[in-house]
Write a structure and sequence with these properties.
heterodimer; A: Maltoporin, Chain A; B: 284 residues; 5-stranded antiparallel β-sheet; 12% helix; 42% strand; globular
């Protein structure tokens, strides 16, 4: 619209014939696998609606973008509701939507540069057989923010990253119950929570790195130190349950703890 | 100045997050009510049982009965408040305690075609479910009403007798719409004598699984005692069949059984039945 101000919008209908299928595992965390669409597995499709604007100068960039995506042909594989499956006892088909707003502020030049980004998102899946109401998708993160800063001081470069995200939803075994049948048989059941009813603790970490470049007539030397997750935040990846023992053993499987990396690179000129 | 502000902000965030580690509860609690509510056409309401779920780390092998719920059966505009009845079943080794919600008055007659709403209030929990009383089985009959049992000198004589074609009890009924039924056979004598004394004591009761058919051939091996036996053919609703078929949970799959209780787990359903009797007498 002007040299600095840009208004942008997009609409698109997209199809994908290789399905990324969620494999639900309440006891050991979900995973994913891929299957080609065929007569039984529908192709995935999405309608994207995007609207945003950008304000950019030589030193700064500000960008706001809102989006809404209607998703169809979602597939989930679970063994929990076999009699209700859409295909082959284990495959369930559903739809959903993803909506959100993304904000970006960037300082592009100068000794100190970096950016701040924030996303508010809401991703809901609707699988009627798995839950009576739409539920948050397993990768849904309501708030996600990232701050990246880089500072150049002579031959030294400092960088810092801070990441924060709302914990992802998960489904958990919750209780045990007995149900007698008319023939006198009594079965014990584990009751599982509503689909993705709970959320893992929020994810956050900070990374720092120091990096220095040196030059000799024949070589270029890079020397650096980086620390991932500097305050050793115990971010939970997923939860594991051992239901074969009483009391039930619950373990949190963690993501990477504090990790220190020292690097040294020599390059011929 | 700008640089100082930037780094101050960054480090402030770092130390703030350091001080707010989230605690995850080991297992989020679920305090649900488990309902087993069975209505029988023509019979008083005596089979509504409520229990609570157990925490995953609870080692109890029996459910905790609930006796302070407000349980109401609704039929159109009529409301019938059920009352908890405590009972103790004592054996040589154990005493079992149970609470059954029953309707104490005589103005409730469960009849074919009735639609009942089960309404339960317990603390802040509100549970509802619906059951329709099915039709009575049509033209239920047995080809035998009396069996004479010879005395058996050897086990193999008994075995031969129970598998003889002439001793098969053939039960028949009409079922043009392919409804599900199940069979219950009960020895109704107080202290019946077993047919074969050398064999270990066995149950005096037989219950089949739900099935769709118009006949059932009951081997004499099903009958273990002398005296009168009532054979009851129950017409069952599909929801009980779904529960029966989905019973038994795989600890890997965590597949829960079919459940028709809104706000809880379990089953509320109704049955209708017809009965024939058969008497086993010693052959003289």
């Amino acid at each position: 619209m002007t040299d600095r101000f840009t208004l942008k919008g997009a609409w698109g209908n997209y199809f994908q014939f290789i399905n990324n299928i969620v494999l639900e595992d309440v006891l050991q965390g979900n995973s994913n696998f891929w299957l080609v669409s065929d007569d039984n597995i529908p192709a995935g499709s999405a309608e994207h609606q995007i609207l945003g604007f950008k304000y950019e100068t030589r030193k700064y960039l500000f960008e706001v973008e809102g989006y809404r995506k209607y998703l169809d042909g979602l597939v989930e594989y679970t063994r929990r509701f076999q009699e209700l499956a859409d295909y082959g006892n284990y495959f369930f088909f559903g739809d959903g939507y993803a909506e959100g707003v993304e904000f970006l502020a960037q300082k592009k030049s100068g000794a100190l540069n970096g950016w701040f980004s924030y996303t508010y998102a809401n991703v809901k899946y609707d699988f009627g057989a798995l839950a009576p109401e739409p539920y948050p998708a397993s990768h849904d993160k309501t708030h996600e923010a990232k701050i990246v800063g880089m500072y150049k001081w002579g031959p030294w470069n400092f960088a810092s990253t801070f990441v924060y995200a709302t914990g992802t939803p998960y489904t958990t075994p919750q209780s045990r119950y007995y149900l007698p049948l008319l023939n006198g048989d009594e079965f014990t059941y584990i009751h599982v929570s509503d689909k993705n009813e709970f959320r893992l603790p929020d994810y956050h970490r900070m990374d720092l790195s120091i990096f220095r470049q040196m030059q000799t007539p024949d070589f270029k030397w890079d020397l650096g130190l980086s620390v991932f997750n500097i305050y050793n935040r115990k971010n939970v990846n997923y939860r594991e349950y051992d239901l074969d023992v009483v009391p039930v053993v619950v373990s949190d499987v963690m993501l990477l703890p504090m990790t220190i990396t020292l690097f040294f690179k020599v390059t011929l000129k | 100045m700008n640089n100082k502000l930037f780094f101050s902000a960054l480090f402030s965030i770092t130390f703030l997050t350091l001080s707010c580690e989230d605690d995850l509860l080991p297992v989020p609690e679920a305090d649900l009510i488990v309902v087993r509510g069975y209505l029988y056409a023509g019979q008083p309401v005596t089979d509504v049982i409520l229990a609570s779920t157990l925490a995953l780390d609870d080692e109890s092998e029996t459910a905790i009965p609930i006796d302070s719920a407000v349980v109401v059966l609704k039929r159109s505009a009529e409301e019938f408040v059920l009352a908890p009845v405590h009972s103790y079943d004592t054996t040589e080794t154990d005493t079992t305690f149970s609470i059954t919600y029953t309707y104490p008055n005589s103005d409730l007659v469960v009849a074919e075609g009735d639609t009942f709403i089960l309404d339960i209030n317990y603390g802040e929990q509100h549970l509802t479910s619906e059951a329709i009383v099915p039709a009575k089985p049509d033209s239920f009959s047995s080809n035998i009403d009396t069996m004479y049992v010879p005395s058996f000198d050897r086990n193999r004589d008994y075995i031969r007798w129970i598998f003889a074609d002439s001793n098969i009890i053939r039960l028949n009924w009409d079922n043009p719409e392919d409804h599900f039924h199940y069979l219950l056979m009960d020895n109704v004598e107080e202290d019946p004598e077993p047919l074969e004394k050398t064999l270990p004591p066995r149950w005096r009761r037989f219950i089949s699984e739900p099935f769709i058919d118009t006949s059932y051939a009951m081997l004499a091996s099903t009958i273990t005692h002398f005296g009168r036996h009532d054979i009851v053919l129950f017409h069952v609703q599909t929801n009980y069949v779904l529960l029966y078929q989905s019973s038994g949970q795989n600890s890997r799959d965590l597949n829960e059984p079919y459940n028709n209780i809104n706000g809880g787990v379990g089953m509320f359903t109704a049955f209708n039945s017809d009965t024939v009797s058969i008497v086993l007498l010693p052959q003289k």
